[in-house]
Amino acid sequence: MNIKKNLLPFLLCLSVSGLLFLQAQAQTVTVTPVEYPDGMKNPFMGFRPGFIGTSKPNWKNEGPYPTLFRHYIKWEDLENAESDGVQKIINFCNTQWAGAEQANVRIIPRLILQWTDTYYYPADIPDGDYASQKIKDRVRRMIQRLGQVWDNDPRVAWIQTGIIGKWGEQESPVNVRDNNNEWVKIIGAEFQAAFPNKLKVVRNQQYWDQEGYDWGVYWDSFAHTGQYTGAWSNIKTTNTQGRWVTDPIEGEVAYDWGDGRSNFAYPNADPTKAWNVNSTVQNPPFYNFIINTIKQLHCSSLGWVDGYTKTDPTCLEGASQIQKAFGYRFVITTFSCSRQTAQGGTLNLNFKVKNVGSAPILAPVLENWQLAFTLINETTRQIVWTAPLPVSTNIRNWLPGDNYDWDPNSNPNGTKTYLNPAVEHVINTSVTVPSGIATGQYLAGITILDPSTQKPGVFFAVKNFFKESQAQPLCRIGIGQDLSGSTDLSPTLFNDLVKDDARSYVLTPGTTYTLSTTATNGSVARNPSGVAYGAGLSVILTATANSGYIFSGWSGDLSGSTNPATLTMNANKSVTANFTPGATPTTYTLTANATNGSISPTSGSYNAGTSVTLTATPNNGYTFSGWSGDLSGSTNPATLTMNANKSVTANFVVNNATPTPKSGGGGALHPGFVALLSLLALLRWHFKARLSRSAP
Question: What is the pTM of this model?
Answer without folding.
Answer: 0.73
